[in-house]
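Run log, item B.
One chain of 303 residues. Sequence copied directly from the ordering sheet:
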Amino acid sequence: MDREKTSGEGACQEQVLLGPRKMGMRPRPFVLPLAILALCLNLPHVALAWGPIAHDIVNTWAIQTLPPEIRPFFENNRQFLIEHANDPDELMKKDRYERMRHYIYLDKYGIFPYPTLPHDYEQAKEKLGSWRIGRDGVLPWQIGEFSLRLTKAMKAGNWEEVKLDAAALAHYVADAHDPLHTTQNFDGQLTLQSGLSVRFDIHLFDRYSKLFIMHPENAEKIDDPTEYAFQTCLASNVWVNLIIWSDLRARESSTDYGDEYYDRFYNQVGPTVVQEINAAAHDAGSYWYTAWLNAGRPQLPAR
């Protein structure tokens, strides 16, 4: 994503939300002032959430959830959607603000279900300050913005942009289903379990993803994309303590993170992982379907 710059006072404002491609038509961007630049550059190096295998699975199975009116377009572009499923992670290498779009540290806002955090961005910014919102992550708002972005691309008939936006939107939606991307203890670093994110997000999928039983529910219309994203993050956050506890228990009688550890870890958290991946595929398909409905049900091309 290209950062937007203006001249005069506020000349160094940077765009925080939106996505990995420059668009001709954009929704209203959210911006943070230059005063936060140093903070953003020194944010903790949060892991990349679900790894490439997980995002490939989500984008693949999201297609299966779609109704017949739009499924052929996505089916014919299946390989494209898979190849670009991890574009937002690649963008982190170029865009200093991309990392914060992949998480929200809900536990920075008090006690579950975090009633002090407004779900409306403007209200959150007014109450808590742009600096804090940027520091603690903007994932649900990013999903809401990208849903609007995909809607506009569909309405404009910009089908190449539609494909890119659909792949990226599904990526952010999948991130919202990763419990470790809803907590400041994302890598177990606060409980002396460093490396937890790699063990949970990457190695479990490398070892066990072929055992997953995938049966996502059919896509359905989402009434409020941003609020739905918040509810998704809250539901994911429920599993954080289970993952942390299971990692500790799995290591109790193991000398390293080998086969014995991973078998024990997966036995504890496997059902949660499979549940969330199925839900992510359903939600990704639902966001695609919702964008098409909100765009006025345009006729989709064959490819």
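Observations after the first pass:
- Residues 121 and 141 are 7 Å apart (CA to CA).
- The chain has a mean pLDDT of 87.
Flagged for discussion on Thursday.
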